[in-house]
Amino acid sequence: MGGTGTVVSHFLNLSSSSSSYSPRLLAPSLSCAASTLLHSRFSLPSIRSCTSSATAAPSTSSDPITPPTPLKKRVVSGVQPTGSIHLGNYFGAIKNWVALQNTYDTLFFIVDLHAITLPYEAQQLSKASRSTAAIYLACGVDPSKASVFVQSHVRAHVELMWLLSSATPIGWLNKMIQFKEKSRKAGDEEVGVALLTYPVLMASDILLYQSDFVPVGEDQKQHLELTRDLAERVNYLYGGRKWKKLGGRGGAIFKVPEPLIPPAGARIMSLTDGLSKMSKSAPSDQSRINLLDPKDLIANKIKRCKTDAFPGLEFDNPERPECNNLLSIYQLISGKTKEEVVQECQNMNWGTFKTLLTDALIDHLHPIQVRYDEIMSESGYLDEVLAEGARNASEIADATVNNVYQAMGFLGRR
Questions:
Q1: Which domains does the chain have, with CATH numbers?
Q2: DSSP letter string over 96-139?
Q3: pLDDT value at position 379?
Q4: Might you give the EC number(s) for this enzyme (predicted)?
């Protein structure tokens, strides 16, 4: 979940059912339990403490009548705690989250359950999950505005996945491109069932929170399509009057989420191949700039990155993918417009430009690295952020799962 890219037109052809929801389909509000932390010596921000905007105390005749606060649309996203968070993750997902948290009701989580679909180091998973959470905060995700939590800390993710699995045709999963590619590389004996079924978990991640929008990356478009199809299928099979006859409220069980198109921007590509995206899974660390790379390592990677022999520097020349990528990284890291970068760099040689790019990267990443070290040194603070985020998320998730159990005919717990 997360990333940049365009969305195929299928996402824009919304079904009629997704535009006729009852007003009762409002998602459960976030936790209203006040949770205030003492600020640490680093002036760490307080954890989100919110009140429900779905209900209000009844007014008396002498009270002034004020309109209810409208509920914000909800956005969910997450990043796997595998490998190192790099510039592609930062500009493709996390930096966008910082802007989204000011406009939407946001939940950002560490998708550790997805991290075990391929072989992994069990001893590193917990450490990587904490590190990823700290990077979220260091990059500007504010726990007073967004719920930040670890996926496995909200058990409803797995519960809803199993319920959704019973309604997911196996043919839908067999069409998933990523499964085909990864299973072909690894071989059937080395691929677990989770690699086939994790799109259902991804659907659970989204539908669990009655999400309105999902930031969509190039490699997630097919998965969001499956999520939308699955939401509509469950709504048809178990929602409406069928659910009402079982004592439920009736109507749609799930909101059908829509793609959230991020602002148009450059896609961060590998430092060793301008035609391949920057990736955690690439075997060479030389191919990426990690957010926590020390300045000497950043300088070395930029010094050794792949370039070309053409004179001058330019964007958008298909024969110069590495040139376009490095200029794009400089544009994003400096905050300058494309025109400003062209004016500044078009006549530079590679040596001069690489020095400029290195300095810009170090200057931009240094405050993030300092903030990360502060957060990691205050383990109690990070634990509280994740615990409060999980509590907020669980309140929404549990309401959704209980509705699904009821609609599917399970005996309710007393």
A1: 74-265+379-408 (3.40.50.620), 285-377 (1.10.240.10)
A2: HHHHHTTTSEEEEEE-TTGGGSS---HHHHHHHHHHHHHHHHHT
A3: 83
A4: 6.1.1.2
H-helix segments, 378-409: 379-407
Within 251-310, where are the H helices?
295-304
Residue 216: predicted pLDDT: 82
Distance CA 92, CA 295 (A): 22
For residue 204, the surrounding DSSP H or E stretch is helix 193-207
So what's the pLDDT on residue 36?
A: 39
The conformation of residue 373, written as its DSSP 8-state character, comes to H
The residue whose two tokens read 């760099």 is 345
**Tokens matching residue 322:** 């590495």
pLDDT of residue 11: 26
Instruction: Please give the C-alpha separations between residue 60 and each of 8, 53, 83, in angstroms, as whole numbers.
Output: 51, 19, 57
d(CA 55, CA 135): 35
Residues of the chain with pLDDT under 70: 1-70, 178, 183, 185-189, 217-220, 263-266
User: DSSP assignment, residue 91?
Assistant: I
Tokens describing residue 306: 């792949």
